[in-house]
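REVIEWER CHECKLIST
Item 1: Sequence provided? yes
Item 2: Single chain? yes
Item 3: Sequence as submitted:
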Amino acid sequence: MSDELLNQEEIDAMTAAASEVNTGAAEADAAATGVPAAAQSDAVVRPVEFAPMSSQQGHGVRNGVELILDVQLHVAVELGHTTMKVKDVLGLVPGSVVELDKHAGEPVEVVVNNKTIARGEVVVIDENFGVRIAEIVNRNERPGYAKAA
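Item 4: Structure as written out by the authors:
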């Protein structure tokens, strides 16, 4: 092009040529997507909807509780509790007896991640201590459990 100014006819011709190129591109897009060119300009954006996953979708795919079966948890067995003053704790020596809030023979609590989940009795197996689970604690009985309103 030169440095000359364009007249109206030349501007109209260039606009028409550009419009034909854009129309051709829109028709190519329409052919590729299956959406008519007229509808593409008024397209509405919608969120993607995926089909629900099933447990049979792939070999080795895990879902539900299977996803967390190998997660490690802190498990403790609590024989009982007591409150002591600092001077009493500092006075503990080998052979000292600490009195707990439970009586001998009472069930011990099985605590997982600071939540009581079961009660049981202490057993000795080959010089090792263990707990025989006697009762699973109901969710509503667990300390700190708040019922949904």
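Item 5: Key structural point noted by reviewer: The longest strand covers residues 115-125.
Item 6: Recommendation: ____
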